[in-house]
């Protein structure tokens, strides 16, 4: 079998730009109820890493002053297995917006929705 076909996952990391890293951290920490880990990546780059156990995919918020919000183009989907409706409520309570209410996928594939975070990024949430 071709090695490329055996890869368990293609996405290995994601970065969500943040005009204001403190505000973005507050939003995502409120959304998921877990702290993000801030790290300096050189003298001019600060990130805040989403919690993960070392397996699977994770990512970060990256301080990106002056970067326009990403409302079009690529979209990252975050795990909403804690309850899609709960996370949508938390997103709004933390200053975000629901851009697309929950949509049911074909049987066995769950549901998804889109939010706009406090930085203007369009982010997907997926509940299996």
From TrEMBL:
Pfam families: Glyoxalase. It comes from the Bacteria. Residues 10-128 form the VOC domain. PANTHER family: GLYOXALASE-RELATED (PTHR33993), VOC DOMAIN-CONTAINING PROTEIN (PTHR33993:SF2). This is VOC domain-containing protein. It comes from Niveibacterium umoris. The lineage of its organism: Bacteria, Pseudomonadati, Pseudomonadota, Betaproteobacteria, Rhodocyclales.
């Amino acid at each position: 079998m071709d090695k490329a076909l055996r890869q368990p996952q293609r996405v290995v990391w994601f970065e969500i730009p943040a005009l204001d890293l403190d505000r973005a951290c507050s939003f995502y920490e409120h959304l998921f109820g877990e702290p993000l880990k801030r790290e300096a990546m050189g003298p001019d780059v600060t990130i805040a890493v989403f919690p993960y156990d070392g397996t699977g995919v994770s990512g970060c918020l990256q301080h990106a002053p002056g970067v326009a919000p990403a409302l079009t183009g690529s979209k990252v989907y975050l795990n909403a297995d804690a309850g899609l409706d709960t996370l949508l409520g938390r997103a709004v309570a933390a200053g975000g917006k629901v851009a697309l209410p929950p949509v049911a996928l074909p049987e066995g594939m769950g549901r998804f929705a889109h939010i706009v975070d406090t930085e203007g990024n369009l982010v997907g949430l997926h509940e299996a």
